[in-house]
Amino acid sequence: MPAPHGLRAGSVPARRYPPPAHRSAPRFAQSCAAGQALGELMSEAGATPRAAKAARYGFVFAFPFVMVMLLVGIYVSAMHAPKPHDLPVAVVGSGAQAERSVAALDAADGSPVDARLLRSVDEAKRQLHDREIAGALVLPNNSDSSDTSDTSVNSGNSGSDGNGGTTAQLWTAQAAGASQTMTVSQLLTPVAAASHLTVEAHDVAPLPQDDQSGMGVLYLSVGAMLAGYMAVTVASSGMPRLLRLKKLVPVLAGWSALMSVVIWTLAGPVIGAVSGHAPEVLGTAFLGIFAVGLTQAFLTRLFGPIAVIPGITLFMFLGVPASNLALSIHTMPGFFGFLHHVLPLPAVGEALRAIVYFDGDGAGVHLLTLGIWALAALLLTAGVDLLKRRKADGKTDGTGTDATTGEDAAGTPGAPAARKAPHPAVQYVMLGAFPFLMVVLMVGLMLSGMHKPLPRDLPVAVVADSAQAAEQTAQGLEKSLGSSFDIRPLTSADEAKRQIRDRGIAGAYVLPAPGEKAQILSAGGAGMSQQQVVQRTFGQIAAQQGVRTENIDLAPLPAHDGMGTVTLYLAIGFTMSGFIVVTIMSAAARELLRVRRLLPVLAGWAVLMATAVWLLAGPVIGAVHGHAWQILGLGALMVFTVSLVTAVFARFLGPLAVIPVVTLMMFLGVPASNGGVALHMVPGFFQALHGVLPLPAVVEAIRSVLYFGADGIGGHLGTLALWGGAALVLNVALDLFQHRRDRDKDLTDPAALVAAEPAPGANAEALR
Hints:
Blueprint: H1 21-24, H2 27-30, H3 33-45, H4 49-79, E1 87-92, H5 96-106, E2 113-118, H6 121-129, E3 135-138, E4 167-172, H7 178-194, E5 198-203, H8 215-238, H9 245-270, H10 278-303, H11 308-317, H12 319-322, H13 334-340, H14 344-357, H15 363-391, H16 424-450, E6 458-463, H17 467-481, E7 485-490, H18 493-501, E8 507-510, E9 518-522, H19 528-545, E10 549-553, H20 566-588, H21 595-620, H22 628-653, H23 658-667, H24 669-672, H25 684-689, H26 694-707, H27 713-747, H28 750-755, H29 764-767
Parallel strand pairs: 1-2, 1-3, 4-5, 6-7, 6-8, 9-10
Antiparallel strand pairs: 3-4, 8-9
Helix pairs in contact: 3-4, 4-20, 4-21, 8-9, 8-10, 8-11, 8-14, 8-16, 9-10, 9-16, 10-11, 10-14, 10-15, 14-15, 20-21, 20-22, 20-23, 20-26, 21-22, 22-23, 22-26, 22-27, 26-27
């Protein structure tokens, strides 16, 4: 059969693959912020198709670049090396010894504390409860001035006779911040030791067993931020008429009520990280979501579709370091101390902390902060709308578009007139589904993974001179410690050190020879949280045995990575670089998803972002020293791998691919990473994911490079290679399938065949 006119035998009509994004992208792509920003950029650049294309591509890569640089820059600079400064503490006592202790604290280099002298334990406890001080050292001659039997961490009395005993009391409020309590102990214990005093710990506000890290309040607060700004961001592009104040206020109020119930239900009844105080918690979460939503609406008035950048920077990137929830605000740079009293996330967090742990004392000022944000955003938004209406003569701007929201006068944003819009209730559900799922997944998965960091079969060793002694000691410790530890008997300290460096065990207790100190071996580079557990547990065992101890760190953390979390921040930066760019690409430049274009583009992007993240975290901030080529290689591999994985999902879901990808890479990956909380301190489900997911693989690979001479890196590289290889194969297969489907469709579509005919008089050479 002869070929149709204008086609060679065996050929198919010319077809662009995939179709242009503005015609073929999923409807969600036209309602996402990226799509709206793209439209404005194309309009501004619209002199030529080439300029419009350049604008689209520029947005595809500029948006994720800015987002990643902001996150890495702010988080790493704020939290890579927390150092205490002006931490308010007290010494309780009288006489020369108490005055010398206060003077010694105030004279310390760098002014780590702001010490004060108090006369009674009751006053110290009151100030701790009111969060006026972070800790108090009670000297022996004052330790019996208050009844402490119901709050002592240890059994028995203080060990003081009230008249020159040898035991001082260290009072803290762990509910005011677990990391702050640790910092106070590190600062005040040496003061007691200098006076030849032992220290006994007391807590006026201990954290509950189900939330021993204080993560419940943190993730309640972060969930409120996400629910507020994400919902308004989606609505601003998918249904702009909702941003009219007369509609926004009631809809946002209903959304805030719904999401406050959802977040509280997850954190409380479902996970168990927060208990009691339901009305107060719900009210605080409602006010936080409502205030953030109104503020995001105001930012949208100012910045249009790119308001997501200032919004997420204000509410999250700056809010988390300033919150006093993850780390003490007295260990953050001074600028964050100011933001702590200003931003919504710290206000929600401190209000919830006061309600849940301190009977509501001090919550009022933080609720007032949220009220000011809500009122100011409402008034400013109304003012901007009034100015726009006056400028547009009170109606429209002459193009049929509402001056305040940017939608057409008919009320349907850019929809064809012939297409009937769904019922408003259906539209609300469709718009709310995305932020609803993101909040539920983030709070549910991350809080369930990290709210109760207790050792679970943490592998450690006991070292003795003989196998029999080691075995007997290990059996005795297993009876007292239960399933918290997996205790292995060894007869060689060198073997224990080798296993610690290989990360086979977390630490070891080396039994002492007569008259010598016991050694507690660990590696800070393998994770600070597990090192603290090892040192605390074996230290208590040695104290019960009356044995002095010596802590030996086989891989100490450097000063520029004092918490050992830089590896996690680098990994998150690489991960975000991968999935954000493909998500935006799927909406704004879908033609780039074809494999022959995708691979070189992603390869170049991976190298660019690995270099940018390393330059920012290393030479600029100083959180990473050396190992440049290894970090660059790992970063590029991670960015490329995550990009390919996201591309697979994007072929089916478009921009909605962000939901499964963020769930896999972040919401599951962070708890399983061994980067924030030790692997053997999270539930078994996340432990099983540690050897499977890409984020844990790159965290462990970077850690191996920085602190262990790259030992053991091969397995983690293999994990990344498997993910990248599988994603590449799937992308190629899907590309071939799509190409064949389009070819078959064109061969059976008469309209396509007619469209493929050359115009009369067309130049044959040009056609070829």
